[in-house]
Amino acid sequence: MSSRQAFRASNRFGLGPRPDELRQIGADPRGWLHQQLAPGPRFQPWLSTVAPSHATLGDLLQKFYQMRSLKKAQQRGDSRQASLAEMRRELKKSLIRTQLQQLGARMQVGIETEAPFRERLVHFWSNHFTVSTAGGKRLLVTSCTAYEAETVRKHLDGHFADMLIAVEQHPVMLAYLDNLQSLGPNSRAGRRRSQRGLNENLAREILELHTLGVDGGYGQDDVTALARIITGWTIANDRQIPGEPGRFVFMNAMHEPGTHRLLGKDYAEDGVHQGERALEGLAAHPSTSRFIATKLVRHFVADEPPAAAVEHVAKVFRNTDGHLPSVHGSLVDLDECWRPQEAKLKTPNELVVSALRGLDFSRLPEKRLLGSLELLNQYPFTAPSPAGWPDSTEHWGSPNALLQRIDWSTQVGKRVGSARQPRTLLAHMSNPTDDGALRLSVERAASASQGIALLLAGPDFQWR
C-alpha cells in the first residue's frame, strides 16, 4: 500500500501520526492495525497510578457521609459549623486535584500511545457507555476514568456481553442513571418505603442506548421488566447497605421478586444472576448487532453509514457472539474505510490529541491540555446526555465551532512559536493526496507560528 494508505490508517483508525509513525506503518497499514487488537496491556502503566480505585470512591463516600452528618448537626444548632465549612473546602480541593490528574493522564495516553487504534476504540466505547458529570453529581467527578479503565479498557479484548455487564454493575453507572435506590414494589424494602419505588432510568438507557437502539423492537413493558430485574443493583455504603463503600452489591431486600418477561423471554428469579442473564440476552439480540455495527461504521467510515458495511460488521458480531477484537478487525477489512471520498470531521478531542501527537508534545500541564477541550466544548465526561457526544459533522462543524477551531489553531501556533518547523511537520501531518495548495501556503507563511496555525486550521488536518 502507498503512503496515502498509511496516512489514512493513522488518521481514520488512529489518533493522527506522531513524527515517526508513518514509517512504522510502512507498506502494511492493515497489518499495523490488526496487530494493535492483540490481547495484552496496551496503555501506559502510569495511568493506573492516578486513576482512583473503588477504595478512593469509598473514601469520598465516607467524606460525603461525614459532611451530611455535620450539616445535620449544624441545623440542630451544633457549634461545629466551622468544621463543616473546612471539610467542604478540603473535599472540593481534593475533587479538583484528582480530577485534573486523572483527566490529564487520560489525554497523555492518547498523545503518547503506540497503539492509537486501540485508544480510539477505548474512546468509542467510553462514549457509547457514557457517564457524565454535567448533571452536577459531584461524587462522580473523580471516578470517571476509573470507570473507563474498569469497564472498557479491561474488557476490550473480550466479548460485548462481558463489557455490558461490567458497565451496568459499575458504581459510577449505577449512580449516574439513578439505580442506587430503585426498589421493587413488592420487595421487603419496597413494602416498607412505598414513597420511593421503581426507577426506570438505567433500564431505559440499557435498551435504547447500550444494546437494542431506539428502534430495536422493545416497548414500555420491556423497560419496566428490565427495571424490576435490576432492582437491588446498588453500591455499598457501610451504613444501610453493608459492604466495602463504593463497591457494587446486590441487595436482595430491594429486589423485585419473581419471574420477569423481557422481549418475550422469561427470566426466573436467581439473585444477581437474573439481571446478568437478561443482559446476556440483550447482547445476543439481532437488534444489538445492527445498532452497534451502525455506530461503529458511522464512527470509522461516514456520518451516513453504508448499508453493506453495517451488515458486514453486524454479521461478524453475530457470528462471534460479540467478540470485540473480531468486530474491530472487521472494520479494518472494510473497503469503505480506505476510500478517500469518505471522511469524518475530527471531534475537538481528536483534533487536540492529533495536533499534540503531530507536534510531538507530551507531558504538558493538565490545565493547558484540558483548557483546549473546554474551549472547543468537549471537556471529558461532560456529555450533555446519556447518549454521549454526537458523532457527526452537523454537530461539530457549525460556523461558530469552526471559528473556535481557527482561533485555537492560531493560539497553538503562537505558543509553539519557532520550536517546530512547519515544513518538517508537513511530512507527517499533511495528506499525501493534497494538491499542493496547503504545502505552498505553509511554506510561504510569514513565520513558523503562522505556518503551524495554517497547517492545523486547514481542512486537510481538520478531517480524518
Number of helices: 25
Mean pLDDT metric: 89
**Quaternary organization:** single chain
The span between the termini is 18 Å
Low-pLDDT stretches: 50-55
How much strand content do the residues show? under 5%
SS elements, strand count: 4
H/E order of the elements?
HHHHHHHHHHHHHEEEEHHHHHHHHHHHH
Range of helix content: 55-70%
Looking at the structure, what is the overall shape?
globular
Reported for the largest beta sheet, the result is: 2 strands, antiparallel
Main structural class = mainly alpha
Main sheet: strand order: 1-2
Q: Gyration radius, to the nearest Å?
A: 24 Å
What features would you describe in this structure?
This protein has 464 residues and is an all-alpha fold. Among the domains are: 35 residues, no CATH class; 53 residues; 120 residues, no CATH class. It contains 25 helices and 4 strands. It has a two-stranded antiparallel sheet. A two-stranded antiparallel ribbon has the order 3-4. The two termini are 18 Å apart.
A few lines on this structure:
The protein is an all-alpha fold. 58% of the residues lie in helices and 3% in strands. Among the domains are: 35 residues, no CATH class; 53 residues; 120 residues, no CATH class.
Q: Which helices and strands occur, and which strands form pairs?
A:
Blueprint: H1 3-13, H2 21-25, H3 29-35, H4 47-50, H5 54-75, H6 81-112, H7 116-128, H8 144-155, H9 160-169, H10 171-176, H11 188-192, H12 201-210, H13 220-229, E1 233-235, E2 248-250, E3 260-262, E4 265-267, H14 272-283, H15 286-300, H16 307-319, H17 324-332, H18 348-358, H19 366-375, H20 393-396, H21 399-416, H22 422-429, H23 437-443, H24 448-457, H25 459-462
Helix pairs in contact: 5-6, 6-18, 6-19, 8-9, 9-14, 12-13, 15-16, 16-17, 21-24, 22-24, 23-24
